[in-house]
């Protein structure tokens, strides 16, 4: 009897072993798919950032072709105009909330000032229940916040304490569920519960404004215990592109632009970094080889605007950054000046180099994957000749250091090079970490800025820690969010989470499947955008015009056009269904990737395609032009913008075509173009029946 | 003869190995974290046990650095391939394994039973692994695990 039992026990063990082996294998393969999907999302995000760089290079192009006499002069100066002529007192009047009445029909929360803990908790509850705060209260909170921020230093110094831990959160990107989840797990901010929020509170998610109001509310109540660091998304040009501007204007139709204007000021006044016990530095992006906290502490942070060139660290660039718009205005107004004096020449110098950078950005796209063994041609960070001299002016340019603090990313290799993926800041290596931390006597750098699958990640021998608090950032199930709790021992402890109830109930396979579908759809959009380029690339492998190419040719052609560094051969079965005998029928395939017919009646399909390719930049430019945020721009503005952009892109567009285009876009036939309607026409609807 | 074919196969296999390796070479320096070795094996269609992985890892790890270099990985993997060390588990074999556990031959297992086996026998599951398996396998209505139905559904259709 016992022998039988023994036998069955050992076969049970063997059976269990088998099942475990099989199951672990299954989970591991799912994990691989998840990583591939992750790569897709990151590549597409990268492509979006490249777009942003192209936008900035377009501005550079405008400056280069700008002459006071040119017919586009008004448009250009419109784009670059500086309207901050008022002083703070005048702004105070403009932002005054007192004239705004709260009607009896308003069902949202009422706030009293000065803010109290109860008031903010009430706000949190209200937002949890999807209520909207009245514009009067919004302006009131923002006004108080602005006043407080103006007296805060660039770098806040905190002390840890044995009785309370400091909580540090990373990017939130408008995802209110994540903030609420953090508060639920960790408790609300208070004197006993200090918090540091490390930037990128807005853009992409739907509740950027709610997050800001909550964070500002707690800041007002506990100014010594709540610390906000500025992120690169706390910037109005970035907001135009990534959704925050749209969110505010959509929620506040009457007072939206005033709110945006006030937010612009608030963003510029957000502190730049936090230091705990003189040992732990917290900043949104990171550092560079020239980071000097003493210099950063002294910069006029509200005056610095991020520009698109980062290779210069000369006096000129500092002057340039602080003075950019004034000089454009002076060029516009002094059109009668015969000589192109020194300012013009130096601007021109900058732009010549800038144009060079424009081409090298295209080259640099190939190097995005940062292969080991850096080439010289990668693009060294230009340093002024006197760089070896530690007191050289180049190193002391505070505005550039500030940009570095908000935009940089770590890299595995030693060194420090311009960050061409982001168009700002740099990539810094472990040697730079050691040097900078050593120089300041710091032991750890905590930063955010990059999405991490587990919500956090160490690098550089655990001297750099990335913390990212927006879960499911790319799609449901794509990643966890995390926050740090740190006590007096300065050892970080992590709490991870993933918002969304549905997500928790999904099995691994389902959440991977979901994320994958979404990634593939995003990828198909990218493919569509490059339709003509793809067709010509395929054509090169198909000299006899059979319409058929091999899968490996398909893969090389696709990579040569999209430059996303993705494993196309692996992805092909999920992207292409039209295969014959193992070969790809690319003409059939191109037909599969289509959009619904836009409302625009444009016979010129290549024009349509070019517009589609650049639609997100176009939208950003339109929104810049639309300074009164009415959502409308005039024919003439549209025509001129498109003409300038196409000349920059080196495509031929005749005046007639543009005029016709403008007319056909004017759906209401009232002489102005509605930006939203225009963009709606380009929304890609996936006609293919895959997924 | 077979020779040309063998060469083609080898190139294909080599590419596959390289591909799997590179997917985990996050620092782009031809090394992968040893913790990923299991995942790499599975992606190639092998079914090692944890013990097998331990043995493999200890043979190829770079001086306890926590990383394995391609140069050591490749010959070790080639050996694995040639010796067919970790053959795949077929659906039938898997079914038999479940049937061994289902002593009364009911056609299903209770979650508690499966948990007992998976977390106590063989190379035990972690709580997380157990929870995930139960979520994926358990029938909604009567909370039974109908293993016969589950096996085909959960086989991945797409090969990596």
Automatic annotation (TrEMBL), chain A:
PANTHER family from the UniProt entry: SERINE/THREONINE-PROTEIN PHOSPHATASE 5-RELATED, SERINE_THREONINE-PROTEIN PHOSPHATASE WITH EF-HANDS 2
What cofactor(s) does the depicted protein rely on?
Mn(2+); Mg(2+)
Please give the family membership noted in the entry: Belongs to the PPP phosphatase family.
* Name recorded for this polypeptide: Serine/threonine-protein phosphatase with EF-hands
PROSITE patterns in the cross-refs:
EF_HAND_1, EF_HAND_2, IQ, SER_THR_PHOSPHATASE
What InterPro entries does the record point to?
A: Calcineurin-like_PHP (IPR004843), EF-hand-dom_pair (IPR011992), EF_Hand_1_Ca_BS (IPR018247), EF_hand_dom (IPR002048), Metallo-depent_PP-like (IPR029052), PPP_dom (IPR013235), PPP_phosphatase (IPR051134), Ser/Thr-Pase_EF-hand_contain (IPR012008)
Q: Which reaction does it catalyse?
A: O-phospho-L-threonyl-[protein] + H2O = L-threonyl-[protein] + phosphate; O-phospho-L-seryl-[protein] + H2O = L-seryl-[protein] + phosphate
Q: What class of enzyme is it?
A: hydrolase
Basic and acidic residues composition bias: residue spans: 378-394
What is the organism field in this record?
Answer: Neolamprologus brichardi
Lipoprotein listed as a keyword? no
Q: Which UniProt keywords apply?
A: Calcium, Hydrolase, Magnesium, Manganese, Metal-binding, Protein phosphatase, Repeat
Please name the GO terms of the biological process aspect recorded for this protein, alphabetically. detection of stimulus involved in sensory perception; negative regulation of MAPK cascade
Automatic annotation (TrEMBL), chain B:
User: What GO molecular functions are on record for this protein?
Assistant: calcium ion binding
Region forming the signal peptide: none
The record's section on Pfam families has:
EF-hand_7
Location of the EF-hand domain: 12-47, 89-124
Which branch of life, at top level? Eukaryota
Q: Which InterPro entries match?
A: EF-hand-dom_pair (IPR011992), EF_hand_dom (IPR002048)
- What SMART domains does this protein map onto? EFh (SM00054)
Q: What is this protein called?
A: EF-hand calcium binding domain 2
| Taxonomic lineage from the root | Eukaryota, Metazoa, Chordata, Craniata, Vertebrata
